[in-house]
Amino acid sequence: MTDRTAVRTRLARALPVPITGYRATDPLPAFATGWVTVIALGTLALLLLRAGRYDWYGDELYFLAAGHRPAVSYVDQGPVLPLLAYAMDAVAPGSRTVFRLPAILCAVGSVILTAVCAREFGGDRRAQVFAAVGAAGAPFLIFQSASLSTFAVDSLLVALLLWLLVRWVRTRADGLLVGVALTAALAFQVKPLVPVLLAAVAAGVLAFGPRALFGRRALWVAGGVAALTTVPALAWQAAHGWPQFGMGSVIRGEQLAVAGGIIQLPVHIISLTGPLGTALGLAGLWALVRTPELRDYRFLTAAAALLAAFVGLAGGRPYYLAGLFPVLFGVGAVAVVHSRALFRLGAAALGAISLALTLVLLFALPVPAVREPARTQREMSDRLRFTGTTGWAEFTAAVEKGYERVPAGTPIVTENYWQAAGLEALTELPSIYSPNRGYAPFGAPPESARTVLYVLAGAPEPGWRALFPDATAVTTADRPLGFPGLSAGVTIWRCERPADGWAAAWNTLSTSHFDAGW
After folding, report:
1. Are 294 and 288 in contact (CB under 8 A)?
2. Which tens digits make up the pLDDT trace of 133-174?
3. Which of left, alpha, beta for 517 (phi over 0: left; psi -120 to 50: alpha)?
4. In 10 A of CB 100, how many CB atoms?
5. 3-class DSSP state of 75
6. Which residues contact 492 (CB under 8 A, 6 or more apart)?
7. CB contact set of 513 (below 8 Å; sequence gap of 6+)
8. Which of 377, 381, 438 is nearest to 62 (CA)?
9. N or C end of the chain, less CB within 10 A?
10. Cα separation, 198 vs 326, whole angstroms
11. Cα–Cα distance between 25 and 301 in angstroms, integer?
12. Do 123 and 131 meet the contact criterion of CB atoms below 8 Å apart?
């Protein structure tokens, strides 16, 4: 035996063995209904208990504002989140717990779906419980449910799409392909990233099979109908200058500032998956590559690699990969159950650690005290993660104070869309506008408005000063440890209408960059 062969043999013995004896045509094992129900209900109870602890996130209030302005598309997302926000607020106005209920249910759904994925790969009750614990103990679950967000819903839909594909590989029931198309269509209406996933899956199928997928008439018919549902959103994007593409470069810049680029991506993935999730994910990838019985599912490995490459090279958010977690955790749990007792014991220990860490994070966050000001985008990102958005009361009070010093009915313009959404949702002030991101298409102040109250974060830039040369400061919101752009670094100005009018000024002021004034 050569040295290289000996190394490979020792490595193979040191890692979980392949999923032996599994055949796609075998009947599925019984579902671990009792244990998975306990895990899911426990997760639901804990997430509901902490749902109201975080104050409003700016994006949540923006979704609510967008929900009051129905459209087929918006700058950076489809209409699903605005509609959900509108509906939840109509059910229980002002309740953060009810508002976040869709995100919480999606998180719980991910736990259940992870167990279902393990069963789909032939996993018995032990594997299903391992998979569910891995999902429940993943830190991503905390952030997925902390606010109503696109990634909270999108990650579940992506996981559902992949499970339907996996099930089709086993059963070849073409009705599942209709489900794939419908799920993709809905995911597109949440956030238009699903074409990237579908391209990665298609490339994986072309490389590793099963290529029979492309010969199914149901796939093309259902896919064609699903593609038609994207036409209104694409028409909206075209009419507004394709702002989604502009947002891509902005997100890349923000991600580089916060996360440090592709080199740091593995660290961020580990921070999302947790100890057991990381182990299950790696075991799942290893099993897909190494197990002959899973040959038809190897497209998942290629899809995961390509999607990770896209996130790393395009500067996407690491949580774009979260839709892969349930299927990888599922096959990984089956691999662990089929491995040596030592690996099973280690996985159980990692599961206990993961659940303990999750419980600590659930009850410790948000951190009530802030000891250092946030001076950079990265520092603000860390603050958001651990304390949430704070300072709404101080911010709204400052703007209301400034509003008392201008004629009633004076429009209010804010520098960023969080400020505008907060004023619209949390005060009775009328006529709120912002040239920032998703608020810009909502329109500019009327040309009849000779005076506005302008909320500015940080010092005025020369271009802004040129538009409003006679601006006078009215009041401020500027606590040393306040939240940037809300209760720190904010000045409220009284401004006269620009010389060329509001429409021309709006073209100059409109931007996709989020400015909190640091």
Report:
1. yes
2. 999 999 888 888 989 999 999 999 999 999 999 999 999 999
3. left
4. 26
5. coil
6. 398, 399, 401, 402, 453, 454, 455, 456, 473, 474, 475, 476, 477
7. 250, 436
8. 438
9. N
10. 17
11. 21
12. yes
Q: Which of 473, 474, 490 has its CA nearest to residue 482?
A: 490
Exposure class string for 146-157: b at 16+ Cβ within 10 A, else e: bbbbbbbbbbbb
Distances 162 to 36, 260, 280, 283 between C-alpha atoms, Å:
20, 29, 17, 18
Give the chain's end-to-end CA distance (angstroms, integer). Answer: 63
pLDDT tens track for 36-48: 999 999 999 999 9
Decide the pairing of beta strands 412-414 and 432-433.
Answer: parallel
State the DSSP H helix or E strand holding residue 217, giving kind and residue range, or none if neither. Answer: helix 217-228
Per-residue model confidence as pLDDT tens digits over 14-59: 344 445 444 555 678 999 999 999 999 999 999 999 898 889 999 9
DSSP assignment of 372-397, as one string? Answer: S---SHHHHHHHHHHH-S--HHHHHH
Residue 5 has pLDDT above 50, yes or no: no
Q: What is the largest CA-CA distance in the chain?
A: 89
The single-letter code of the amino acid at 185 is A
Q: How many CB atoms lie within 10 A of CB 337?
A: 23
SS3 436: strand
Per-residue pLDDT reduced to its tens digit, 287-302: 999 888 899 999 999 9
- 86, 64 in Cβ contact below 8 A? yes
Tell me 449's DSSP state. Answer: -
Give CA–CA dist 361/139, Å, rounded: 8
Contacts 24+ apart (CB under 8 A), 67-75: 69/442, 71/236, 72/232, 72/233, 72/235, 72/236, 73/232, 73/233, 73/234, 73/236, 73/237, 74/438, 74/441, 75/240, 75/243, 75/244, 75/247, 75/437, 75/438, 75/440, 75/441, 75/512
CA-wise closest residue to 445 among 429, 459, 461, 434: 434
Two structure tokens written together for 83:
């509609």
